[in-house]
Amino acid sequence: MSSTNSRSTNSRSTNSRSTNSRIADFRSYDVAARRAEIVRQTDLTEADIAVYDAADGLTIDQADRMVENVLGVIGIPVGVATNFTINGKDYLIPLATEEPSVVAAASNAARIARGLGGFHVSSTQPIMQAQIQLVDVVDPAAARIRLLEAREEIIALANEQDPKLVSVGGGVKDISVRIMSSDKAAYVVLHLHVDVRDAMGANAVNTMAEAIADRVAEIGGGHVVLRILTNKADLRLTRVRAVFDAELIGGAKVVDNLIHAARLAELDPYRAATHNKGIMNGISAVVLATGNDTRAVEAGCHSHAVNADGIYSSLSHFEKNADGNIVGTLELPMPVGLVGGATKVHPVAQAAIKMLGVESAEELAGIILAVGLAQNLAAVRVLASEGVQRGHMGLHARNIAATAGAQKSEIDAVVARLIADKSIRVEHAEKVLAEIRGGN
Predict the structure, then answer these.
(1) pLDDT, tens only, 213-235
(2) What ranges make up the beta strands (E) of 34-166?
(3) Which of 72, 147, 186, 212 has the fewest other C-beta atoms within 10 Å?
């Protein structure tokens, strides 16, 4: 991924094969054939991909080391999104989600963008922030100046806590100090700005914040309450843009309706909440598949949706260019990592990273945003044309058929009837299944 500021990254093995994400009719493959194709296209081996079997994935012993009071693990389907070209490179992208249509929709939107150059991504430096809150400061304005005067001392003290991070080009790069006032209290809040390289960064910045807290209190003339990471990672931004072919979208009328729908999300928090949920359908699925922190990413994204007027708004923007095609853009905080946490512990997350062949957290963040924009375009396109239920419920019909008791050999026939009858309900599926069995 290109960056607005060049930076070194930890050395990491790249995908040694040339991936082609345009796999025709991939959805019609059975699971074994899909796995064989992924092994052929990526650096995954048959042993690597075996962890996607429930019995061979995360073990109870591994889970017991990850969290407390373990009883077991929960399975989430992992699908592969196809057709993605990002900064000129093809990716096959794992998505962990229980919601039907997400993988198919993202893949279809990527196909629509593919012929016009795919997705283009850039990013800022991977800066995370920690906050140190001082209370009972008698001279907040002067305290702020004193802390800024001690900038070099504070940075040096914080960087002593993680010499390895500093040795690879990371560490504290700056500080800032804010005064937060109300009629009840005034707080002096110091921010550490930490380049965390290829980590998500929570552990690094929290350790630094705790280590310098007493000295900050001494300089500021108050006492410390909070010293912790903020998930509003607005100094660690990733941006993506793509052009979507108007004819493949459905023509000029659908394009115009899509823009109207997107503009309503910019103006109306009620629409924005659902619009942004569509973006997060794609983003959270890749974040989860790669063992990253879905809650941190979601918190950062939704806080970023509050505009300068304090109104919750759309995270994405869609415009029509001179050729009549749709241009989609998305800019979000994306604090994900390749080192530490579940990414290094969970075998399925490790397989996902290997499938992607990513070399840095920056590259992973770009992939995640591309999926978010693709999923968003697909969702708004459907809303602006035939409506959400047709495609979504068509996929949901398979779950309904299985719930009704259909066996694998019966599901396609039951689904076809449910869709034809426009009645995708369990009781109707049971009736259809009885008719099919009765006719045999």
Answers:
(1) 999 999 999 999 999 999 999 99
(2) 78-86, 89-96, 119-123, 127-135
(3) 72
Please give the distance of CA 412 from its chain centroid, rounded to a whole number: 32
Percent composition of the chain: helix, strand, coil (DSSP 3-state, to 5): 50, 20, 30
Buried b (16+ CB within 10 A) or exposed e, 234-250: ebbbbbbbbbbbbebbb
More confident residue, 392 or 155: 155
CA pair distance 435, 255, nearest whole angstrom: 43
Residue 290 near residue 284, CB atoms below 8 Å:
no
Q: At what angle do helices 140-149 and 202-220 cross, to 10 degrees?
A: 120
Task: Say yes or no to pLDDT of 387 above 90.
Answer: no
What kind and span of H or E run contains 239? strand 237-244
Residue 359: what pLDDT?
94
398 falls in which pLDDT band (50, 70, 90)?
Answer: confident
* Tens digits of residue pLDDT in 40-79: 999 999 999 999 998 899 999 999 999 999 999 999 999 9
Which helix H or strand E contains 10, and what residues bound it? Answer: none
What lies within 8 Å, CB to CB, of 11 at 6+ separation is: none
* CA 162 vs CA 167, 196, 215: distances in Å: 9, 10, 18
Return the residue matching tokens 């100090």.
177
Contact 255, 326 (CB under 8 A): yes
Query: Measured between alpha carbons, how far apart are the two ends of the chain, in Å?
Result: 57
Calculate helix-pair angle for 269-289, 347-356, nearest 10 degrees.
100
Distance CA 435, CA 440 (A): 9
- Please tell me the distance from the alpha carbon of residue 254 to that of residue 190, in angstroms, as a whole number: 49
Looking at the annotation, which residues are catalytic?
99, 277, 293, 392
Q: How confident is the model at residue 2 (pLDDT cuts 50, 70, 90)?
A: very low
Which of 14-20's residues contact partners 24+ apart within 8 Å by CB, and which partners?
14/357, 14/359, 15/42, 15/43, 15/356, 15/357, 16/43, 17/41, 17/42, 17/43, 18/90, 19/89, 19/90, 19/91, 19/92, 19/357, 20/90
Q: Edge-to-edge, what's the strand order for the sheet holding 223-229?
A: 171-181, 186-195, 127-135, 223-229
Question: Region 234-240: what's the mean pLDDT?
Answer: 98
Say what the pLDDT of residue 385 is: 82
